[in-house]
Amino acid sequence: MENPTGAGGVKPLLEMLAAYNAWANERLYAAAALLPEAQYRADGGAFFGSLHGTLNHILVGDRIWMHVFTGEGVKPASLDAILCDDLSSLAAARRTEDARIADYIGGLDEAALAGTVRYRTVRAPADIEQLLAPLLIHFFNHQTHHRGQAHSLLTRYGGEAPSLDLFIFQRETGAGIVSGAGGDFGAAERRP
Prior knowledge:
Blueprint: H1 11-32, H2 37-41, H3 51-70, H4 87-107, H5 110-113, E1 116-120, E2 127-131, H6 132-158, E3 160-161, H7 166-173, E4 189-190
Antiparallel strand pairs: 1-2, 3-4
């Protein structure tokens, strides 16, 4: 991240969100690995059912959007596709996709961010042309939305889950911090 304060354009903010995305996913997958297999696969009432279904959906969404942005990679045909059958291979695919996302964001310039992309939606098919920068904000927000569902499942099954708050990432990495330091935010959050 060249300018983690976010001053000077939208690109530094997107770079921070790409780094946050990878950080949050690492924490989430580490917590998921601690669950018994039966809980990991149990339908907990999340939109995509289980933690396994939810984590797969986040990867599905990322691959669909990265295909829209780059024209490269496999574009899953459905939002509930299971791309990986086990957590280990899913985690490896997640790390690869997170690196791809960071590389893509890092390669954008302000002119590209001011441009548009055209795509056809997966659900309720329609042809859309949209400004790239706001669409990238949706891209990162979508991940956060479903990570919140995954966090809820982890809390339900284990009583605790890692903090995924953006400000914790900022404090740990210094992104956007002007002054001050400290605090131990590594402990899992527990339900009151």
